């Protein structure tokens, strides 16, 4: 990771912390980062564990520190009070990278200036183990160098997909932002079903977790479409085919998942509106 970029990280909860650790692991020097974290215990832990400079608020940022990128990793409900304090950084050329759900680009332009360079993103929680994926979109004021720098920061915790239309962020939220919860629920359901057919709960959960994790890794590493991978597991007239007859029925998993993702996409639009 390029050591010349200076990063101002505003908020260092789970997602901000995952990003920070990813940057440091990729070689970004701690002196290139300033973290704004108002909670004293969290700030002390960051200083002790990672050796990064931590301040309580925007007013405490060292005057000599001129960030190239300002990353907002705070909860959406607190942003109205926080964002305006960073207008000076946006006005002097820093690109603003937001991972806050439900806050469109226009929101940041309203608080930081209509000419501010803004990148809006939707990461997901597997970023905590470096296996996330982030949907990102930029406004017209983000230049090629800023976009590349933002991509490098986001790639520290997984893959990045750039969107042409900000409206697609709601669909990204529904598919991958909320998606880990769907997978975790599938593990729960597989575990309960395993118990119902005679397995001890601990064994059923271990089998379900390992199967989902292994199948996901196989899908990640394979160039074959998911449909081909499914067919490779399915022998005609066998046990997998019997299960898929249920899952792929007219009232099976496909329409259920379509309704679930549609509901999440609709709610994402409502929250951003």
What does this entry look like structurally?
The chain has 273 residues and is an alpha/beta fold. The chain is 50% helix and 13% strand. The protein contains twelve helices and eight strands. The protein has an eight-stranded mixed sheet with strand order 3-2-1-4-5-6-7-8, sandwiched between helices. The radius of gyration is 22 Å and the shape is elongated. The two termini are 36 Å apart.
Helix content: 40-55%
- State the separation between the terminal residues, measured CA to CA: 36 Å
Report the average pLDDT across residues.
Answer: 95
Proportion of residues in extended strands: 5-15%
Structural class computed from helices and strand pairing = alpha/beta
Radius of gyration: 22 Å
| DSSP helical segment count | 12
Anisotropy-based shape = elongated
Largest sheet: number of strands, sense, barrel closure: 8 strands, mixed
- Total number of β-strand segments? 8
- Low-pLDDT sequence parts: none
The strand line-up of the biggest sheet is 3-2-1-4-5-6-7-8
- Quaternary state of this entry equals single chain
> What is the H/E order?
EHEHEEHHEHEEHEHHHHHH
